[in-house]
Design goal:
This protein is an alpha/beta fold. The chain is 39% helix and 22% strand. It has 14 helices and 15 strands. The strands form two sheets. It has a nine-stranded mixed beta sheet with strand order 9-8-10-11-7-12-13-14-15, with helices on both faces. A hairpin with a 4-residue loop joins strand 1 and strand 2. Helix 11 crosses helix 13. The N and C termini lie far apart (60 Å).
């Protein structure tokens, strides 16, 4: 067994967790006794202080641990003191896309679309809750028995969802969808085989010609990433307004206004919904409106925006294929109070939306552009669509169906 594997196994033992808790308490005691203001220290000074205190503690207690184990203790103690505890290293790891905590002893990470067990653990439920509170405190949010669920956004744009007992039966749960530090470029997707160059060239042309687009797919399929890519082709002379539940889009434009929804307060009032923001955006002289995701009654206002001079607007939608996307739009419109006929609504959709871009995450974890469908109109049977590009899963190739036609 390698030394790294030994360290990993050691860190997962109850003995290590107890030792780490004792060192953490000792650090807090030293800070309080010496009245140290470590919040003002830089990272290197904190690291030196923690390493020295851990070395002294190990020596004084005559603990039978080697230098590598002592270094691991120092790193974890620093993360407990200044970071997010056991998951801080995962947050810092750019190759990790998602972090999922299912109670103190089950932590999972996603890399390249594949979920795997992470070699970390918490001491107990209280330890998980303490880390959750540390995540939420700078954001002005909290979680407790009266508010057992919370959605929040970290300063870097990563999304956090936390839920605690008694709602979560198996212990506190945390989900972190990490935000990429560098937005993917078109060449990145082509290199990875996620999309063909012909499809990207076509989308580039249609975006510049102000086609209205919907990017569809399942959870984690890369809808927001692809929407961000499409937005990079919007001319810099245009005024763009974005509406999101959690601000994830990073538009490299000179004239962008970013709007974010606000959840209700503790009294259940003063919420600002996506529909409120879309309606307000219409009064802000936008050239294009980009909604991060349509999931409620904002669907009617978004379709209205696309039909009233804001060509080139974009959004995403949860759907498994272009036909399913139309049915989901009809369902959301019904929830929003739409009382017109199906034919009338389809006419609005056909006039508003020009292209439906379908992205998906395959069972292997790979993300692919599955199809680009153009809406041609509608009749009494439904929407008329023409598939322009498609990904052949069996042959694992992207096909340009325009050439076949």
């Amino acid at each position: 067994m390698s030394s790294n594997e030994q360290i990993v196994r050691f860190r997962l033992t109850d003995q290590y967790q107890q030792l780490k808790s004792a060192i953490h308490r000792n650090l807090i005691s030293q800070i309080e006794e010496k009245n140290l203001d470590i919040d003002r220290w830089d990272a290197q000074k904190v690291e030196r202080f923690v390493a020295e205190q851990v070395r002294l503690y190990v020596t004084q207690q005559r603990l039978p641990i080697n230098a590598r184990e002592s270094e691991a203790l120092a790193r974890d103690a620093r993360d407990e003191l200044m970071g997010y505890g056991p998951i801080q290293a995962l947050v810092d790891d750019d190759t990790v896309n998602d972090i999922v905590v299912n109670g103190p002893n089950r932590v999972f990470i996603e890399r390249d679309g594949v979920l795997a067990t992470a070699p970390v653990r918490f001491v107990n439920n209280a330890h998980v809750v303490r880390v959750i509170q540390r995540i939420l405190s700078p954001l002005g949010r909290r979680v407790d028995e009266s508010t057992p669920m919370v959605d929040a956004r970290l300063p870097d744009g990563s999304r956090v969802n936390a839920i605690i007992p008694p709602i979560a039966l198996d212990g506190p749960c945390v989900s972190i969808r990490k935000f990429r530090r560098h937005a993917l470029r078109a060449e990145d997707l082509v290199t990875r085989g996620s999309v063909s160059q012909e499809a990207l060239d076509y989308l580039n042309e249609r975006v510049k010609k102000r086609a209205n687009l919907i990017v569809i797919g399942g959870t984690g399929s890369g809808k927001t990433t692809f929407l961000n890519l499409l937005s990079q082709w919007i001319p810099h002379t245009e005024r763009v307004i974005t509406v999101e539940d959690a601000a994830e889009l990073r538009l490299e434009h000179d004239h962008v206004v970013r709007l974010e929804t606000r959840p209700p307060n503790l009294e259940g009032a003063r919420a600002v919904t996506a529909r409120d923001l879309v309606r307000n955006a219409l009064r802000m002289r936008p050239d294009r409106i980009i909604v991060g995701e349509i999931r409620g009654d904002e669907v009617l206002d978004m379709l209205q925006a696309m039909n009233t001079g804001h060509d080139g607007s974009m959004t995403t939608l949860h759907a498994n294929n272009p036909r399913d996307a139309i049915h989901r739009l009809e369902l959301l419109a019904g929830f929003a109070g739409y009382n017109g006929s199906d034919t009338t609504f389809r006419g609005q959709v056909a006039a508003a939306i020009h292209l439906i871009v379908h992205v998906s995450r395959l069972p292997t974890g790979e993300r692919r552009l599955m199809s680009i469908a153009e809406i041609m109109g509608h009749d009494e049977r439904g929407m008329l669509m023409r598939e322009l590009f498609a990904y052949d899963v069996d042959a694992r190739v992207h096909r340009d169906l325009r050439k076949a036609a």
